């Protein structure tokens, strides 16, 4: 953890924080891309490292390497921090180690740690070996934290204010530190043991009566912070709940370890939303179109296998009624409609519940009321569908009993689907699993199996 | 659009912006809740309006009304801004109009507009009628913008800097305006015609050489802004891409109309992620567990009906082969497994693609390469599953041809599912539809229909 730096280090940090896209207007800062590498004749100018990163992602690996090697190191650091994880890894593994190490050294510690985290052990140690001892120690320290924890997303460069400073001294101090820090608009008030006792924004300080002692200004505060080992979702929830620019990360003794800034939270929110959607259908939560397809195959196959086993279970239900179907093949025609409809109903409930859990503000009572709500919806929509399909199946098969069987099984299965879709995420969470992961696969097993069983069961009882 | 206020108005704006949860540390600001309303004996204290809102959401409507009526108006305004949409509407419709109008007047214009937008015409006009002319005009103005556009999410209270100011004057001006503004850390540099020519952060200004002219400081800038009628997703994409605290919203002549701040963008990101997930399975994109269940029924029924029609289509495919099934009921047992597996494969592709489109940085070439990627994944996973099911079905049915039919149809359907899942969002986007909406329903129709057709078709050809 780096709270103070020697001068040289600070300079580097300063440039790196700027190049790393700190919360700032940025437009004044232009990166020009070396002509020789752009492929086309003209040299390109980018207002922001993020744009440079976008451009790099469209180049071949060779051109990416060439461009980064020729760029000013601080610009390369900025671009690297904004590159897609997979691309960044390829680049770092193919850059000369020394150049790579220089770029890493330029990056904001949290961004550097994120990139290094994706590298294989060997490359990582080789790179860390080329950094200054202090630098590599800090990065190893950050790399030890769970990437999904608050500490895994935190930036260690924060502005600390002693309790005894006046607001004027505090403003002066912030002004002097501002250039080096990613979150320059908050000062964190600590006592002599570095325990966090309050937070003051530049706005608070500018509006405070001159001469006020910082300690007094925060005397009334109940500081909102997150424990370093909390899930990063919790940090995201807190920050967006309170609309903070940055959320302090503390250890169990209340010592400030760093901050998670709003821009990192935005990335976390996006990643977690993807994780929910992808996880729901059994893809790797971190998969994107940039994931190497072989990796995706490895990630998806296990869930496809589980899905195969599950659908074999539903199939075995149908097998129980093979005789019934042999007598009336029409049942095989209508059977999938029941399962499909209930599956869709369940997925609607599932999606609503998963998104609700994503907000992290959902107590038990409210949760089960939500399941009850889904049951009501399932019953009413089920009733509607039952009536529709009753007449549909009746007219189609000229057999009223088939219509009745269709209607009855559809109503039951849709209600079951709604309740299952609503409760699966809650059950998963209760047993400590990710509420979203593979939920859709388990839901389909239930709605298919039950749908087939009820439909064919009723048919066996009433039709023959 | 309100750029300057008379004093009284500024005071109100100032309190309202604070009460509305501007980006700030907040801990120093405590709201105490009137005892008589808390239900339990003690008076509650909240560090933040968002906490007050959470508490209110757990109370009965009567207690909510009572609490808001007794609270200091500015606190009520802050809490109301953080309340869930449906709750806020109930409250406003049941509060005495005068009290409601006072609270609305206290709120930040963008928050007030959001709440009023959910009210029915009658209540809205009645409330607007009680406000000052200037106030109601501004709100009517904001209400005219599409809520899904950048302007629909913008805050009109921005700090403007004339080109001719020095940085020192600029800092002094920002300091004087700071209290009134939701985004107090950026100054927007405009020429004499209010055309936006640059953006300077408080950090930029504090680090700039004293005496520098603001106009010169931004001379090099290529200002990044969003058009007022752009989709709010675009604003969200730009702000999170550049890690800005606020993104200026401009008209077609480049005049600044307001800003969208990072805290609103976080809400937008969360809402859009929910919209994708809910829309995918045909639920109302804005549905949550707080949506009245009758409303949800109305929202979901149409899609369930479409799903019913679609599954009837797949059923008609099975109907074509009724004879085949009559001869070999076992086919009805295995048939759903093919469709189910392909459906899951397709949903994995679908989820990956929808999340990719959510990032808003996805050109055509890359898009179709992503579909190719899914095709590869579908082929390899399909091959793996085909081999597995070949032996499975063979052993189970003692019929090698059935195994072959199963394997062949599974491979074809899984590849089709992968390609369909990958392309449906792109096709939807190309024809101007929401890429996510009901995509899963259409996908299932394809994988079910094709799965049944290929499986039963091959069976008819090869088994009999």
Automatic annotation (TrEMBL), chains A, B:
GO terms for cellular component: plasma membrane. The keyword Transmembrane applies. It comes from Candidatus Desulfovibrio trichonymphae. Residues 1-14 have a biased composition (Basic and acidic residues). It is found in: Cell membrane; Membrane. Its main location: membrane. This is Magnesium transporter MgtE. Residues 154-218, 219-277 form the CBS domain. Homodimer. Belongs to the SLC41A transporter family. Residues 1-24 are annotated as: Disordered. It is a multi-pass membrane protein. InterPro entries: CBS_dom (IPR000644), CBS_dom_sf (IPR046342), Mg_transptr_MgtE_intracell_dom (IPR006668), MgtE_N_sf (IPR038076), MgtE_transporter (IPR006669), SLC41_membr_dom (IPR006667), SLC41_membr_dom_sf (IPR036739). It holds the Pfam family MgtE_N. Keywords: CBS domain, Cell membrane, Magnesium, Membrane, Metal-binding, Transmembrane, Transmembrane helix, Transport. Acts as a magnesium transporter. The chain crosses the membrane at residues 301-321, 375-394, 400-428, 440-463. One of its GO terms (molecular function) is metal ion binding.
């Amino acid at each position: 953890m780096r709270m103070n730096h020697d001068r040289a280090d600070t300079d580097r940090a300063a440039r790196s924080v700027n190049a790393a896209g700190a919360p700032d207007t940025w437009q004044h800062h232009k990166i020009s891309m070396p002509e020789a590498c752009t492929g086309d004749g003209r040299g390109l100018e980018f207002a922001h490292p993020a744009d440079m990163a976008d451009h790099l992602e469209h180049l071949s690996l060779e051109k990416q390497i060439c461009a980064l090697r020729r760029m000013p190191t601080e610009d390369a650091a900025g671009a690297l921090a904004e590159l897609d994880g997979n691309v960044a890894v390829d680049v770092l593994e193919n850059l000369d180690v020394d150049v790579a190490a220089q770029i890493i050294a330029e990056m904001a510690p949290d961004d550097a740690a994120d990139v290094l985290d994706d590298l294989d052990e060997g490359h990582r140690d080789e790179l860390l070996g080329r950094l200054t001892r202090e630098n590599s120690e800090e990065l190893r320290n950050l790399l030890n934290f769970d990437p999904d924890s608050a500490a895994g997303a935190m930036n260690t460069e924060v502005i600390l204010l002693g309790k005894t400073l006046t607001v004027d001294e505090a403003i002066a101090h912030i002004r002097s530190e501002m250039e080096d820090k990613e979150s320059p608009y908050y000062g964190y008030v600590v006592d002599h043991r570095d325990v966090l006792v309050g937070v003051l924004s530049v706005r608070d300080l500018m509006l405070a009566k001159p001469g006020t002692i910082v300690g007094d200004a925060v005397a009334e505060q109940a500081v909102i912070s997150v424990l370093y080992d909390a899930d990063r979702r919790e940090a995201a929830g807190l920050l967006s709940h309170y609309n903070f620019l940055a959320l302090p990360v503390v250890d169990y003794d209340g010592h400030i370890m760093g901050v998670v800034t709003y821009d990192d939270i935005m990335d976390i929110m996006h990643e977690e939303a993807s994780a929910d959607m992808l996880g729901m259908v059994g893809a790797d939560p971190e998969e994107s179109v940039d994931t190497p397809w072989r990796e995706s195959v490895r990630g998806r196959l296990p869930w496809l296998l589980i899905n195969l086993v599950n659908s074999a279970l539903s199939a075995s239900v149908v097998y129980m009624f093979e005789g019934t179907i042999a007598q009336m093949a029409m049942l095989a025609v209508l059977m999938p409609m029941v399962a499909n409809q209930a599956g869709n109903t369940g997925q609607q409930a599932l999606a609503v519940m998963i998104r609700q859990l994503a907000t992290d503000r959902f107590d038990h009572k409210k949760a089960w009321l939500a399941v009850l709500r889904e049951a009501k919806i399932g019953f009413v929509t089920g009733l509607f569908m039952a009536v529709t399909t009753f007449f549909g199946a009746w007219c189609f098969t000229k057999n009223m009993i088939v219509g009745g069987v269709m209607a009855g099984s559809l109503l039951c299965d849709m209600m079951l689907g709604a309740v299952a879709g609503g409760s699966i995420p809650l059950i998963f969470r209760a047993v400590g699993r990710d509420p979203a992961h593979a939920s859709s696969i388990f839901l389909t097993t239930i709605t298919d199996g039950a749908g087939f069983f009820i439909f064919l069961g009723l048919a066996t009882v009433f039709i023959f």
